[in-house]
Amino acid sequence: MLARAQIPNQLTLLRLVLAALFFLALNQYRYDPPQWTWILWAAIGLFILAGLTDMLDGYLARRWKVESTFGRIMDPFCDKVIILGAFIYLAGPRFVLLEAPAGSSRVIFNMVSGIYPWMVVVMLARELLVTGIRGQIEGQGVKFGANIWGKLKAILQFVVVPILLWMIWMDPIRNDGWHWLIIVRDVLVYATVVVTVISGVPYITAAARTLQAPPKSPTG
């Protein structure tokens, strides 16, 4: 039973290792000038594998009834590391295309991933706010777990990242036949940002109700 109880925790730690390898892979890539484009497939594989370990460790912990304090802390931590880390990289210099239109001295800044720094700031702000709220509420002895919006946000983020990497590999900016992918990319990116923001609202309203509730009278 002891060995079985450790399997979900080991999968959680494996996800952290996969996240490190994922970042290492992305660190070798550069869009302009093109460098190691094949490594995007390695990054996609590592990210999908990390997502599978996330689903598996949660499933096993519930099925075997071995949910632990370690898993409760480390599972969301590992999720945030790989998700926020992925979006930070996608908004970074390795995915930048600088173009100077003909006859103009002005340089156009374009993120081939569709992710811009302000989007990462919004996502990070949401995670920090919800984490702070959860810590404050649960510090008062009130259970404050993830809701359906939070789960939908996590699923959408895990799906969008490998799709964006695939689209970058397809390179719709340079390949005329794939220009329509740019529209799909932008729809996915903005939908992810909107859902991320909306998913934080229920936490804020629930926290407001909890904090405004009158304290319970002592018994005995």
Description:
The model has no long low-confidence stretch (mean pLDDT 87). The protein is 68% helix and 4% strand. The two termini are 40 Å apart. The protein has a single domain, classed as CDP-alcohol phosphotransferase transmembrane (TM) domain (Four Helix Bundle (Hemerythrin (Met), subunit A), Up-down Bundle). It has six helices and two strands. A hairpin with an 8-residue loop joins β1 (96-99) and β2 (108-111). α1 packs parallel to α3, α2 (39-63) packs antiparallel against α5 (148-170) and α4 runs parallel beside α6 (180-212). By secondary structure, it is mainly alpha-helical. The radius of gyration is 21 Å and the shape is globular.
Supply database-style keywords:
220 residues, Four Helix Bundle (Hemerythrin (Met), subunit A), mainly alpha, 2 strands
* Secondary-structure element order, N to C: HHHEEHHH
Number of helices: 6
Uncertain regions: pLDDT < 50 for 5+ in a row? Answer: none
How far apart lie the N and C ends? 40 Å
**Can you summarize the main beta sheet?**
2 strands, antiparallel
Q: Could you say what the CATH topology is called?
A: Four Helix Bundle (Hemerythrin (Met), subunit A)
CATH-level-4 superfamily name: CDP-alcohol phosphotransferase transmembrane (TM) domain
User: What is the alpha-carbon Rg in Å?
Assistant: 21 Å
How many structural domains? 1
